[in-house]
Amino acid sequence: QVQLVESGGGLVQAGGSLRLSCTASGRTFTDTAMAWFRQAPGKEREFVAVILWTNRDTIYADSVKGRFTISRDNAGNTGYLQMNSLKPEDTAVYYCAAQTFVLRQRLTTTGAYGHWGQGTQVTVSS
């Protein structure tokens, strides 16, 4: 069983930066996709970014391209989401998700992931 623990959320002014972390435990992290999703009040959970653990290939939502960077550490099971130039519309609860052997065409969908963190709040003030 995989456990995911997020950290790094908080309150920041527009234009500021935050870095979220997601640490996984419970299994060897190979052939795995780690993704970030977010959910604002009254809205559906939406895809933000994903990284493939083995080859570090990444995909981003159009709304965050050029501002957010997803990465992973070299030795352990921690993924990161560096968020720069934050906007009020980035305000949401951010969730880390992970799953092994995800088909590429499903990487951006919530249904592809069986393991989720508890979420961390990101609030961007204008």
Walk me through the structure.
The protein is an all-beta fold and 126 residues long. 0% of the residues lie in helices and 50% in strands. The protein contains no helices and eleven strands. The strands form two sheets. Strands 2, 4, 5, 6, 9, 10 and 11 form a seven-stranded mixed β-sheet that branches. The model has no long low-confidence stretch (mean pLDDT 94).
Average per-residue pLDDT, rounded, comes to 94
For the secondary structure, the number of strands is 11
Stretches with pLDDT under 50, minimum 5 residues: none
Beta-strand portion reads over 45%
Q: Determine the number of helices (DSSP H or I, runs of at least 4 residues).
A: 0
Q: Describe the global form.
A: globular
- Tell me about the largest β-sheet: 7 strands, mixed
Content-based structural category: mainly beta
Q: Give helix and strand order, one letter per element, not per position.
A: EEEEEEEEEEE
Distance between the termini: 40 Å
Radius of gyration: 14 Å
Helix content bin: under 10%
Quick recap of the structure?
It is built from no helices and eleven strands.
List the SSEs and their pairings.
Layout: E1 3-7, E2 10-13, E3 18-25, E4 32-39, E5 46-52, E6 58-60, E7 68-72, E8 78-83, E9 92-100, E10 115-116, E11 120-125
Parallel strand pairs: 2-11
Antiparallel strand pairs: 1-3, 3-8, 4-5, 4-9, 5-6, 7-8, 9-10, 9-11
What keyword list fits this structure?
4-stranded antiparallel β-sheet; globular; 126 residues; mainly beta; 0% helix
